[in-house]
Design goal:
Radius of gyration: 20 Å
Strand content: 15-25%
Strand order of the largest sheet: 5-4-6-8-1-9-15-14-10-11
CATH class of the largest domain: Alpha Beta
Helix content: 25-40%
Number of domains: 2
Number of strands: 15
Oligomer: single chain
Order of helices and strands: EHEEHHEHHHEHEHEEHEHEHEHHHEEEE
Shape: globular
Largest sheet: 10 strands, mixed
């Protein structure tokens, strides 16, 4: 039996990705090999491949709020409004205090802070010209708080700082708050503003982990023998989560049900992953879902295109799934959009949710020469695969400082 104390379902979804600004566009791109990675000219860095979103922030914000807020907050506002609309909800006096906002982040405010420092340099570093918007832009709860200000939500809000595992962790935290009865609706997931920061590019480059390729669309290539690092991207995906009984009462559509999850820590290195702890995370999440590893139909892998990271995850997955006689389908989204950091887990899950209905598994992208150390049964490499049906999806998401997460989502079947 599942150890979850209440059944939590997904009833709304809003996203922006480098290759789509809603689920329909995003899914179409994943099934048709459409990359969202382009060349970007970056201050101090030069030309780099990056995944940039093209959503229109002025759909839900005025020019002043876009200017005074943060890029992460703007992405969160777009995704939250889209998710609430998709769920068929209206925020009003009857429910605004019972809605919680839980946004997973890797970092935020760096984009604006770097720009503020640059602007200050033009005035010989006279701090009289420092922006009074700096503090609200950089507090840890900013993107979630911007959502509540924009949508007039008076329930709790916070950001879940979990590095590149944050998208999953935001959803897990939202589900837990629903199970505790703290809220009736949770807007939960993850966002990222990372390409606006030169610091993250410079850091990955000094680490030898910044992807490069003459064709930007081919720069992100997890599992390929020629992979050489991460393509930094922005994006976001926020979900409306609610208790199943509440969703049924209001006749909501249901994308899927959160069946199990786990978060743990490697406690071994700030950057390098550890297959043993990742495998432990998988097993606990699967056990909490009340299933066995061979019942998992599809795994969205986290693989970012780094040498060690891709291999360690493959080792972990083989150790968990190889012994059951049935290996799940494995796919990956980063070849299409790069690494959306704090948004990655939530955004990549969204691209696979339609498989509950159509049974189609989208492929990985840019695997031209599979690294033997990353080889796994049912790795979907070039073309989509039509299956007999998908009932359980395992969503892998890992972050720096050894932050691991897995989210098990089940097809809702009544």
């Amino acid at each position: 039996m599942s150890t979850l104390r209440a059944r939590i379902v997904i009833t709304g979804l809003g996203l922006t990705a480098p290759n789509g600004n809603n689920l329909s566009e995003f899914r179409h791109s994943l099934l048709n090999g459409i990359s969202g990675i382009t060349a970007m000219e970056h201050r101090y860095i030069g030309t780099v491949p990056a995944g940039l979103c093209t959503y229109d922030p002025k759909i839900y914000q005025n020019k002043r709020d876009v200017r005074n807020g943060t890029r992460a907050g703007s992405i969160a506002i777009y995704c939250a409004n889209e998710a609430v609309r998709d769920a068929g909800l209206e925020v009003g006096d009857g429910n605004r205090s019972r809605i919680g906002v839980y946004v997973g982040i890797t970092e935020h405010g760096n984009v604006e802070t770097e720009q503020e420092v640059y602007n200050l340099s033009c005035f010989d570093y006279n701090v009289d010209f420092w922006s009074h918007h700096h503090n609200p832009r950089t507090v840890a709860n900013n993107p979630a708080g911007e959502v509540t200000l924009n949508m007039k939500i008076t329930g709790p809000h916070l950001c879940v700082g979990a590095a590149c595992a944050a998208g999953n962790c935001g959803m897990i935290y939202g589900a837990q708050q629903l199970m505790l009865g703290e809220v009736d609706f949770a807007i939960a997931g993850g966002v990222s503003e990372s390409p606006g920061s030169f610091g993250i590019f410079a850091s990955f480059r000094s680490q030898g982990a910044l992807a490069r390729h003459e064709n930007p669309a081919q720069a992100s290539r997890p599992y390929d023998r020629a992979r050489n690092g991460i393509v930094i991207s922005e994006g976001g995906c926020l979900y409306v989560l609610e208790r199943l009984e509440d969703a049924l009462k209001r006749g909501a559509k249901i994308y899927g049900e959160i069946a199990g999850y786990c978060m743990n820590s490697d406690a071994s290195d700030t950057v390098l992953p550890l297959a043993e702890r990742q495998a432990e995370c998988f097993r606990i999440g699967i056990e909490r879902a009340g299933i066995s590893p061979e019942e998992v139909d599809l795994v969205n892998s986290h693989a970012t295109g780094t040498n060690a990271g891709d291999i360690q995850e493959a080792v972990a997955m083989r150790s968990v799934y190889a012994g059951g006689g049935r290996f799940p389908y494995i796919n990956n989204t980063k070849g299409f959009i790069g690494h959306a950091m704090g948004a990655a887990g939530a955004l990549e899950l969204a691209g696979n949710l339609p498989a509950f209905e159509d049974g189609i598994v989208h492929p990985c992208m840019n695997i031209d020469d599979l690294d033997p150390e990353c080889d796994m049964p049912n790795l979907v490499c070039r073309e989509p695969v039509q299956t007999a049906g998908i009932r359980y999806i395992a969503n892998n998401s890992f972050g720096m400082l050894g932050n691991n997460s897995v989210l098990i989502v089940r097809k809702y079947e009544g």
